[in-house]
């Protein structure tokens, strides 16, 4: 890779991911859930939504693990109104984010990171991107290896 596409790596510990499967593709319902979560002072970080299929979506989002009980209470109330929704929770995650202003103009950064993580058997549970940032949600057991690999690959030590 030319230039320095990644200049910083950061880690956020104790991250829970909640996935809502068979969720109605209803923006009002989605906004109600996120508003209810916000009213409980829970900070939602990463959000990923699948394209609609047969009127449903899969919606995943991350919150601090400490707020999981409050969030599950909100979601259980939602399930009473929409019993078909399936809720999956995984509280053993870490968010590893890489940042670089040049990333927007250098093709292949995400491809290189996916390849590096795959070659080292590091499973990605969720990913979000912007032009200058890529955040990977991985198992907490893999964080040291992932950060070490990224720092070595991009000379961040």
* Biggest sheet descriptor: 6 strands, antiparallel
**Helix and strand sequence:** EHEEHEHEEH
Gross morphology: elongated
Helix and strand content put the structural class at alpha+beta
Instruction: Give the spatial strand order of the biggest sheet.
Output: 2-3-1-4-6-5
First-last Cα distance? 18 Å
Low-confidence stretches: none
The CATH superfamily of the largest domain is known as ACT domain
- What is the fold named in CATH at topology level of the largest domain? Alpha-Beta Plaits
CATH architecture of the largest domain: 2-Layer Sandwich
Measured by DSSP, the beta-strand proportion falls in: 35-45%
Distinct helical segment count: 4
Tell me the helix content. 25-40%
Calculate the mean pLDDT score and round it: 94
> What Rg do the Cα atoms give?
17 Å
Keywords:
single chain, 157 residues, alpha+beta, VC0802-like, Alpha-Beta Plaits, 6-stranded antiparallel β-sheet, 36% strand
Describe the protein's architecture and organization.
- The chain has a 6-stranded antiparallel sheet.
- The relative contact order is 0.23.
- The chain is an alpha+beta fold and 157 residues long.
- The protein folds into 2 domains: 66 residues, VC0802-like (2-Layer Sandwich), CATH 3.30.2130.10; 77 residues, ACT domain (Alpha-Beta Plaits).
- Strand 2 and strand 3 form a beta hairpin.
- It is elongated.
- The protein contains 4 helices and 6 strands, in the order E-H-E-E-H-E-H-E-E-H.
